[in-house]
# Entry
Amino acid sequence: MGSQEVSTVDWQGKHVTVAGLGVSGIPAARALHERGALVTVVNDSDDERARAQAAELEALGITVRLGDGATLPPSTELVVTAPGWQPDKPLFLAAAEAGVPVWGDVELAWRLRGDNGRKAAPWLAVTGTNGKTTTVRMLASILEAAGLRTAAVGNIGVSLLDAVLGETEYDVLAVELSSYQLHWAPSLRAHSAAVLNLAPDHLDWHGSMEAYAADKGRVYEGNTVACVYNVADPATEDLVREADVEEGCRAIGFTLGAPGPSQLGVVDGILVDRAFVANRQKQAQELAEVSDVDPPAPHNIANALAAAALARAFGVEPAAVRDGLRAFRPDAHRIEHVADIGEVAYVDDSKATNTHATEASLAAYDSIVWIAGGLAKGATFDELVIGAAKRLRGVVLMGADRALIHEALTRHAPEVPVVDLDRTDTGAMSEAVARAAELARPGDTVLLAPACASMDMFTNYNKRGEAFADAVRARADESA
# Structure
């Protein structure tokens, strides 16, 4: 199916099983029911929240089965799944055996776009191990600065179904896609797409790095204008080479160095474009200054270049790239400067929940007291420590798997002082900040970049970041 074609499905009387209640499952069930499908929702849990959600759907005439997400209901012709459900679940194995297709929420949204009779907005898609949300929000800011009706949607928290079926008629959508979502989106064909980077993540779900990369690479399939890749990460360019794209679609690289032809990059503190210019062999178009990017950390400049590449692929003028980047403000807990105390900067990057994100965060500062630890999710830390060792003034560790980081530090940075907090209560953060302050010297950065998930101590990374910020502000008040 070509990128501009809209799929039509006769849903009347079609037996559809929706796997999972929640952010994607409930809108999917509603949308399918409204189109005449006979919908059955299956859900693993049968708790109070699930029962309340089920009651709302059952009031519409939708069948809900709680506590049984494993069995394929009889007569099922299609399964629509929440993105987090693993491919080896019995429900999907039964569907494969019965020849029943499985779609994700993104696939359903793709199929239903234009269903309301309006023109279907093209999608500019972003995936990668880290930086997706920031890049998509930067892209939306640039598109808005160009006067386009747009929204940042997908894995970013705004339902794609709500975007394609809602009242607003968009010119273009900035779409964040996870590897889970791409796995279940076989017919998705974006206008242009970017893979920001690839590093081991979610391997328990995908089964191997190769399978994870292949699912990320699906974002390039059928692109019509540009496949944007990271020059510093050759695996992303490999995915472009392997993709089956529309005739005339171009490979566009982004780099923190000086760009070659068909690339965007940085020259003397200026973001420049040598891809979408009349003579890319000899010309370069200035887009913005590095100082227009907030914060101007290396990996965030890379995000800005990727967003700019997608916007330029869509025909956005250089001035809108500059204005959009200037208007953009990062989400909380993403390299967020909290305070300066005694010439020491305190930075919250609680969102750095894996080693790849933390590597980028550590690379942004010259002298660091690093606060780390939590749930490792099977990660190893040797490469991270080797790369960061010269930048570390000291390290404060906490959380369930802190010993894994401590062991890597002992092996590769034995001269760096380490404070090991033998506690996993939420109050540990205040002590961590206090101990980090003792290690810091004027000009240093105390950086919360845990390289681990937060659930051993906090509800989520937001709560962890808030605890850090609260502890820093309390310390700032004391020293005022």
Q: What stands out?
A: The mean pLDDT is 92. The first helix runs from residue 25 to 34. The two ends are 63 Å apart (CA to CA). The longest strand covers residues 38-43.
